[in-house]
User: Which sequence fits this backbone?
C-alpha cells in the first residue's frame, strides 16, 4: 500500500486506484506530453528541411546560378526575356526599410523605456503601458493601410519627390510597429539593474539624469542590444506593411523616396500571382524565404545569447 | 545636497559642471522624455482618428452582412468575418491543447537525467527561436506541408483521399429540371443515358424516361420533367457535407488554421509557461507531500490555479491570429469569396486579408471600405483584449 493510494482514497466517491494503474497513467501522460513537446521540434525540422530542399532544387535549375544569386543585384524573375536572380536588390530594399524603421523606433523606444523605468509616476505609467500594448496589438495590415493613406500623403505634402509607394513611408510604419517591442524589452532590461547601483550614484550626488543615462543605461546595455536585435528581426520579417506601402520594384538604392521591394514583399507578390508550382519564379520564393529565415534566426540567436549573458551578470 | 561631485575629481578631463547646470539638464531631459513617451499616444490617436474618419461613414448593417462586391456601396465583409471565425476557431482547438501540454512538459516535468536535460533545454531554446521566425515564412511552410502535403499525396485538385463527398452527373431534363445521377467518384466514367436510370430531383428519386433524339416529347408535364434524350450530356458536380475531408488539405480553412497554429503556438507555450511559473511552489510541494504523483499535482493543483493566466495568454495569442494576414495570404491567395465556408476544406478569406485586398487597390472608395473593415477588425480585437485584461485583474485578486 503506497501513499499515493491513500491520497486517492481520501477523496470521497472516487474509486481507489492501485499503484500500478497510477504508474501506467503517469507514463501515458508523460508520453502524451512528450509528443506535444516534439511538435515544436518537428516544426523546426520541417522549416529547415523544406527550405533547404527547395532552395537546392532552385539552385539546380538551369536559369539560376548560386554565384549570381548571392553576389549580383538584378532581380527580375517575371519580366523580360532573360531572368536574373540576384538577391541583393531585395536585401537592400529590406535593409533600407529596416534602417528607416530603426531610426524611428530606437530613439523613441529607448527614451520611452528610460522614462517608464526611471521617471514616470505611477498614474502616467498606468496610462502609457496599455497604450503601448494597444499599439503592439494592432494588426500589421492596419499599419500598412495607415502608411498608404496617411503617412505617404503627409510626406508628399512636405516634399514632392516621394513616390506613391516608397521605402520611407513603409519604414515609418514598421518603426511604429517596432516601438512597443523596443520599449518593453528595453524597460525590462533597465528594471533588472539592481537598485544598489542607482542608490550608489545618488549618494555621490548624481541627478536623476546622471543616474539613468550614465549608470543604469550602460549597466543594462547588453539587454538593450538584445532588444534592438529582436526589433531588427521583427522589422526584417514584417510583411503586410511593405506589401502595401513599399511597392514592388526591386532595386539597389539608398534613396528612401523610391519604390523598392523587400524580400517579404516579393513573397507576397508571388503568392498573389498565377505562377505554376514548378516554375523557377515559384521556387525562387523558397530561396528568398530561406535567406529571410537565416537572417532572422541569426538575429534572434545572437539577441538571446546576449540577453542570457546579461542576466548572469546581475542575478 | 547634490553639490560638486564633479569638482572632487580633478583628474578627469571632463570640464567641471555646476550643480545648477546639471539640475537644468535633468529638468530638460525629463521634459524631453515626457514628450517622446507621449509621441506613442499621439501616434495611436492619429491612427485611430484617421481610420474612424475614413471608415465610419460606410459602417452599416449591410456592410456586416453583404459579400464583397465591385460596387463599393454594396460591398461587405460577411464571408471574411465568418472565415475568421472558422479559421481562428479551428486554430484555437488545435493550438491550445498542444501549447498547454508543451508548457506543462517544460515547467512541471523538468528532467534530471544527464541525457534528458539537454533535450529539455533544446526544446526551450527551439521555442524561443520559433517565436522569432517571420510569419510569412510559416506561410511558405504551410503551403508545402499542409496545402500540398509535400506533393506525395497527389495534387490538390485530384486528392488521394476524400470523405463526406458524393459526386453526381447533372442532367437538364426536357422540362428544364435538374436531374442528378449519383456516380462512383470524381473520375468515374460519364453516365450513359438509358432506360432504367434513376435520378434525383430535389432529394426524391425518379425513374428517368428516355426518348430518342428525334422522338416527340410526351404530353404529360410530369413525365416531361423526368425525360431525357438519348445523347444528353452531363456535367460532373459534387456535394460536400460539413465534415468533408480531403488529403492533401488544399487551400482551405484547415490548412489556414494549421498554419496560424505554427505562428501562435510559441506565444501560447511561452505565456502558459509564465502562468505555470507564477503558481507558488508551496502548493506543488503540499500536493507531493501528500503522496500525489506528479501528474495528479499538475491536474488537480497547478493547472487549476494557472488557468486564468493561461487563458489570458491564449486570448492574446488568438487576437494575434485574428490580425495575422501574411501567412493566410500565402495559403489562400486573394480569391473572390461570396459565402462563408461550409466545411474545413472550403475556400476562405479572413478579415485582414479582405482589408488588404481593398487597401491595395488604387481607388479611394476601396480605401474607405478598407477603413470600415479595419474598424470591425479592431472592434473584435478590442473585445478580446478587454476580456483578457478583465481575466487578469480577476486572477490577481484571487491570488493575493
Assistant:
Amino acid at each position: 500500500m503506497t501513499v499515493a493510494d491513500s491520497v486517492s482514497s481520501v477523496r470521497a466517491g472516487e474509486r481507489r486506484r492501485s499503484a500500478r494503474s497510477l504508474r501506467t497513467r503517469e507514463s501515458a501522460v508523460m508520453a502524451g506530453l512528450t509528443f506535444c513537446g516534439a511538435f515544436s521540434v518537428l516544426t523546426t525540422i520541417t522549416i529547415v528541411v523544406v527550405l533547404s530542399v527547395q532552395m537546392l532544387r532552385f539552385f539546380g535549375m538551369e536559369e539560376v546560378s548560386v554565384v549570381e544569386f548571392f553576389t549580383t543585384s538584378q532581380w527580375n524573375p517575371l519580366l523580360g526575356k532573360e531572368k536574373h536572380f540576384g538577391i541583393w536588390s531585395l536585401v537592400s530594399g529590406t535593409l533600407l526599410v529596416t534602417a528607416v524603421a530603426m531610426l524611428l523606433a530606437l530613439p523613441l523606444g529607448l527614451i520611452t523605456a528610460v522614462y517608464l523605468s526611471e521617471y514616470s509616476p505611477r498614474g502616467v505609467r498606468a496610462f502609457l503601458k496599455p497604450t503601448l500594448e494597444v499599439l503592439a496589438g494592432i494588426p500589421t495590415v492596419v499599419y500598412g493601410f495607415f502608411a498608404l493613406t496617411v503617412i505617404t500623403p503627409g510626406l508628399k505634402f512636405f516634399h514632392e519627390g516621394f513616390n506613391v509607394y516608397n521605402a520611407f513611408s513603409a519604414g515609418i510604419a514598421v518603426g511604429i510597429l517596432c516601438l512597443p517591442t523596443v520599449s518593453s524589452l528595453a524597460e525590462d532590461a533597465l528594471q533588472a539593474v539592481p537598485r544598489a547601483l542607482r542608490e550608489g550614484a545618488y549618494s555621490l550626488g548624481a541627478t536623476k539624469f546622471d543616474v539613468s543615462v550614465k549608470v543604469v543605461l550602460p549597466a543594462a546595455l547588453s539587454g538593450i542590444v538584445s532588444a534592438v536585435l529582436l526589433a531588427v528581426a521583427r522589422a526584417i520579417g514584417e510583411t503586410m506593411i511593405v506589401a502595401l506601402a513599399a511597392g514592388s520594384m526591386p532595386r539597389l538604392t539608398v534613396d528612401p523616396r523610391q519604390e523598392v521591394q523587400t524580400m517579404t514583399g516579393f513573397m507576397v507578390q508571388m503568392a498573389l500571382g498565377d505562377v505554376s508550382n514548378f516554375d523557377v519564379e515559384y521556387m525562387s520564393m523558397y530561396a528568398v524565404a530561406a535567406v529571410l529565415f537565416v537572417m532572422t534566426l541569426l538575429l534572434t540567436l545572437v539577441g538571446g545569447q546576449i540577453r542570457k549573458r546579461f542576466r548572469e551578470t546581475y542575478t | 545636497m547634490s553639490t560638486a561631485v564633479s569638482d572632487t575629481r580633478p583628474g578627469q578631463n571632463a570640464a567641471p559642471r555646476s550643480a545648477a547646470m546639471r539640475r537644468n539638464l535633468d529638468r530638460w531631459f525629463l521634459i524631453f522624455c515626457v514628450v517622446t513617451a507621449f509621441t506613442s499616444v499621439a501616434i495611436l490617436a492619429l491612427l485611430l482618428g484617421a481610420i474612424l474618419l475614413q471608415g465610419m461613414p460606410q459602417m452599416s448593417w449591410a456592410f456586416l452582412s453583404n459579400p464583397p462586391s465591385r460596387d463599393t456601396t454594396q460591398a461587405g465583409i460577411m464571408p471574411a468575418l465568418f472565415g475568421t471565425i472558422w479559421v481562428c476557431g479551428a486554430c484555437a482547438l488545435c493550438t491550445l491543447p498542444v501549447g498547454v501540454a508543451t508548457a506543462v512538459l517544460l515547467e512541471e516535468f523538468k528532467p534530471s537525467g544527464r541525457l534528458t536535460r539537454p533535450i529539455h533545454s533544446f526544446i526551450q531554446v527551439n521555442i524561443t527561436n520559433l517565436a522569432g521566425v517571420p510569419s510569412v515564412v510559416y506561410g511558405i511552410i504551410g503551403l508545402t506541408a499542409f496545402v500540398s502535403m509535400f506533393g506525395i499525396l497527389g495534387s490538390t485538385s485530384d486528392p488521394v483521399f476524400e470523405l463526406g463527398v458524393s459526386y453526381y452527373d447533372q442532367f437538364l431534363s426536357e422540362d428544364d429540371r435538374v436531374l442528378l445521377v449519383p456516380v462512383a467518384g470524381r473520375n468515374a466514367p460519364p453516365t450513359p443515358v438509358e432506360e432504367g436510370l434513376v435520378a434525383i430531383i430535389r432529394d426524391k428519386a425518379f425513374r428517368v424516361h428516355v426518348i430518342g433524339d428525334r422522338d416527340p416529347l410526351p404530353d404529360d408535364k410530369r413525365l416531361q420533367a423526368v425525360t431525357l434524350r438519348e445523347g444528353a450530356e452531363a456535367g460532373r458536380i459534387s456535394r460536400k457535407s460539413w465534415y468533408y475531408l480531403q488529403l492533401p488539405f488544399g487551400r482551405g480553412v484547415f490548412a489556414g488554421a494549421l498554419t496560424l497554429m505554427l505562428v501562435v503556438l510559441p506565444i501560447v507555450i511561452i505565456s502558459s509557461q509564465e502562468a505555470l511559473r507564477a503558481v507558488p511552489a508551496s502548493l506543488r510541494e503540499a500536493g507531493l507531500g501528500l503522496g500525489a504523483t506528479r501528474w495528479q499535482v499538475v491536474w488537480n493543483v497547478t493547472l487549476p490555479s494557472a488557468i486564468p493566466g493561461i487563458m489570458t495568454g491564449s486570448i492574446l495569442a488568438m487576437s494575434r491570429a485574428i490580425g495575422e494576414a501574411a501567412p493566410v495570404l500565402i495559403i489562400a491567395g486573394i480569391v473572390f469569396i461570396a459565402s462563408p465556408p461550409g466545411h474545413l476544406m472550403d475556400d476562405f478569406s479572413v478579415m485582414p486579408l479582405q482589408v488588404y485586398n481593398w487597401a491595395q487597390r488604387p481607388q479611394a472608395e476601396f480605401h474607405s471600405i478598407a477603413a470600415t473593415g479595419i474598424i470591425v477588425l479592431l472592434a473584435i480585437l478590442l473585445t478580446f483584449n478587454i476580456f483578457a485584461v478583465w481575466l487578469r485583474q480577476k486572477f490577481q485578486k484571487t491570488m493575493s
About this structure: Chain B touches chain A through 93 residues (CB under 8 Å). Strands of chain B lie at 161-172, 178-183, 198-201, 204-207, 209-211, 227-229, 235-247.
